[in-house]
Amino acid sequence: MISHQAVEQAAYDIMTKAAIDIPEDYLGGIKEMVTTEKAQLSCFVLQSMVENWEAASEDRRPMCADTGLPRYYVKVGNDARIEGGFVALERALRSATARATHDVPLRPNRVHPLWRTDHNNNVGINAPEIDWSFEPDADWIDITTVHKGGLFGTDYRMLFPGDGIDGIKRFYLDTLIAFGKRGLACQPAIVGVGLGGSKDTSMVLGKQAACLRIVGDRNPDEKIAALELELTDIGNNIGMGPMGFVGSSMVVDCHIEVGYTHTGGMPMSVHTFCLSSRRATARLHADGTVAFRTDPKWFTPYMRRESIEWSTSKDSLSKSV
Amino acid sequence: MVDEQRQPQQVRVKIPSLREDLEGLTPGTVVYLDGVVYTAREGVYKKVLDEGAPLPLDLPAVSDANFHCSPAAAREPDGRYNVGGVTATASFRFSQWMPQWFEKSGARIIIGKGGMSADDYRNLFVPAGAVYLTTVGYGTGALLGRGIKRVRDVFWLEELGIAQAMWVFEVENFGPFLVDSDLQGNSLFEQHTRQINARLGEVYAGLGPPALGRFGETDDRSDELV
User: Fold this and answer.
1) pLDDT value of position A297
2) B73 confidence band (pLDDT: 50, 70, 90)
């Protein structure tokens, strides 16, 4: 049985870690870009960001004052038991959000869309969002928080099969260039592409692809993996870098997730996870221990299952988790 | 042509600013500030310019540097403020208030994210004798947070909330910022965007338009999109 106090404390801890410590995979990606970026001003921006992350870790202060829209992704092992059930878990996540907002501190970004009411704690109607998924043969709970900027860098479009891969490339470029100018997307970023599903699914998949997969991770479908690398390359050859300055550092990595879709359509979303790619995960085990990490390991073989049954072989696990 | 090899020049500027200091700034100069900086964005602009509330402090005598930002801050039980970091918000959407704000506040330095349009610089900033500084990154929130030495005041905190309240910070070596617009309205972003735009045809080569268009790609709402 996992206690709701343990959930609250773990959620509070990952809110703090996400806000302060840049994930090592993303830091590695940016440090590599510092060595390949030839444009002097773009290089200056990248180096300033590296200094900023060092200052954040040293001082234990948030790396970016725009908290974005802090939210949670919860993966529940099929055999996990939670004290008070899922309602208690959701309450604990809201409580941890309010507590971390004051203590870190995080900027209270969440307001009512019409009345602009601000509870000063990032909690409100439908906030923070909590996305759920399940995992077979497990008795743990994974809680991931993501603090992603909330205004720019995302777009959706209904494409059609006839638009083909070229249509995907074009819309991908449209989104990067539209929001890359002046650096509104806070690039270089991990870019997530959602393809297929119903319209809302394509948005959800693209967001999760950007925020819940780490730099260097590849889709288990080899052709999709190749397209991820090609899109990364295309983005870095626009001629644009951080802040929309001349440069070559636009896309740290590109991740594509797919869902079966309407036979007549190919909905697509593009999401850029900003220069402060804030994510952190806690695994709460049934015995009360908690382990922290920065790789959410969200897209398991079970998540990507294509038929009624799913693969649990060690082979497929090592490929994608 | 954007000069890619030049090392950015770094300067420190005291606030309230001196005309001669601002005259020395050119697009791409790295700036660190010392003195007093205040935040004002749509909440404060509406309050002062639309509703006519009096300015709560003596501007520009105290400060002529308006930061488009909201801090990550919290009020402690003892009344102190804990400011962790500050990061700018995108400035383009505030241009409607800038002419009146320049007049009312005497601001000469606007700090924000992403700059404003070249037209805004020519029509609003140059006549006001103001420069625009952009934050770097974006999101050097921790570095900027280090530069804040004290919260001198905060106005309309209850009414507007932490994000929209008017914060007045005493700052030291506060930066880095990059000069986007100088006193002549020359814009760093415009120079870079022009150079990037020149290659866009090549970037899109061979990629035709999608089957279904959308409004925005045409401004004529009577157009069919298929």
Assistant:
1) 98
2) confident
Domains in chain A, start-ordered, CATH in brackets?
A: 4-20+63-149+279-293 (3.30.1330), 150-273 (no CATH)
The CA-atom distances, in angstroms, between A210 and each of A79, A134, A254, A269, A274 are: 29, 20, 8, 11, 9
Per-residue model confidence (pLDDT) at position B70: 86
The answer to whether A166 contacts B212, with C-beta atoms less than 8 Å apart, is no
pLDDT tens digits for B108-158? 999 999 999 999 999 999 999 999 999 999 889 999 999 999 999 999 999
Asked if A276's CB is within 8 angstroms of B84's CB, the reply is no
Q: What is the pLDDT of residue B141?
A: 93
Residue A4 near residue A83 (C-beta atoms within 8 A): yes
Q: What are phi and psi of A87, to 5 degrees?
A: -65, -40
The predicted pLDDT at position B6 comes to 55
* Residue ranges of chain A whose pLDDT lies below 50: 316, 318-321
In terms of residue numbers, what domain contains B100? 10-203
Residue of chain A whose Cα is closest to the Cα of B198: A239
What pLDDT, on the 0 to 100 scale, is given for residue B113? 93
Report whether A183 contacts A242 (CB < 8 A): yes
Residues 6+ apart with CB under 8 A from B107: B59, B60, B64, B65, B66, B101, B128, B130
Residue of A nearest to B82 (CA): A105
Look at residues A58, A210, A217, A232 and name the one whose alpha carbon lies nearest to residue A149: A210
The per-residue pLDDT for A253 is: 98
Partner-chain residue, chosen from B178, B192, B212, that has the shortest CB–CB distance to A160: B212
Count of CA atoms in the C-beta half-sphere (13 A) of A288:
2
CA pair distance A180, B197, nearest whole angstrom: 12
* Cα dihedral value B170, B69, B60, B120, nearest 10: 150
B168-172 mean pLDDT: 97
ipTM score here?
A: 0.90
| Pure H helices in chain A | 4-20, 24-36, 40-59, 85-103, 164-180, 199-211, 222-236, 314-320
- B90, part of any domain: yes
CA nearest to A131, candidates A139, A143, A122 = A143
pLDDT for position A314: 54
Comparing CA positions, the residue from A156, A43, A72, A106 lying closest to residue A276 is A106
For chain B, how big is the Rg over CA atoms in Å?
A: 20
Report if residue B2 sits inside a domain: no
Which chain A residues are closer than 8 Å to B195 by Cβ?
A: 239, 246
Q: Which of residues 57-96 of B touch A (CB under 8 A)?
A: 69-74, 82-87, 89-90, 92
Q: What pLDDT, on the 0 to 100 scale, is given for residue B35? A: 98
- Report the CATH number at residue B40: 3.20.130.10
